[in-house]
Design a protein that fits this description.
The protein is α+β, with helices and mostly antiparallel strands. 49% of the residues lie in helices and 12% in strands. The longest helix has 15 residues, at 85-99. It is globular, with a radius of gyration of 14 Å.
Length: 112
């Protein structure tokens, strides 16, 4: 299932292992992608900040790093886990090591 619109922003109903698998697959394919661990504060701030709004809308994967987003997904009929950013990072590292892959964290161009 693709991302679900929550207050105008796409959030994917997923779990940590699945999100990490997708991230590792993109890395294996040589694709540079943007993965966000979105929380409700970020979504609300994006209402007033066009740059943040743009980043949220353009991300390749936004996972629910916050219980209110998990609850919203579930109210919309999407069974989703709570994907904390730190847990996702650890899981990507674990899967990358198991697969012998390399990856890096980078800031979005233009971000300070």
């Amino acid at each position: 299932m693709g991302p679900v619109d929550i207050l105008g922003f796409p959030v994917s109903g997923t779990d940590c292992v699945s999100a990490a698998k997708m991230t590792i697959r993109w890395a294996r394919e040589g694709q540079s992608r943007v993965v966000l661990a979105a929380n409700v504060h970020m979504v609300m701030e994006a209402w007033d900040d066009p740059d943040l709004s743009s980043h949220l809308r353009e991300a390749d994967l936004s996972v629910p790093d916050g219980k209110p987003l998990v609850w919203a997904l579930r109210l919309l009929g999407v069974n989703s886990g709570h994907v904390r950013g730190a847990d996702l990072t650890s899981e990507v590292c674990r899967q990358a090591q198991d697969a012998g892959s390399r990856w890096s964290l980078r800031k979005h161009p233009g971000d300070s």
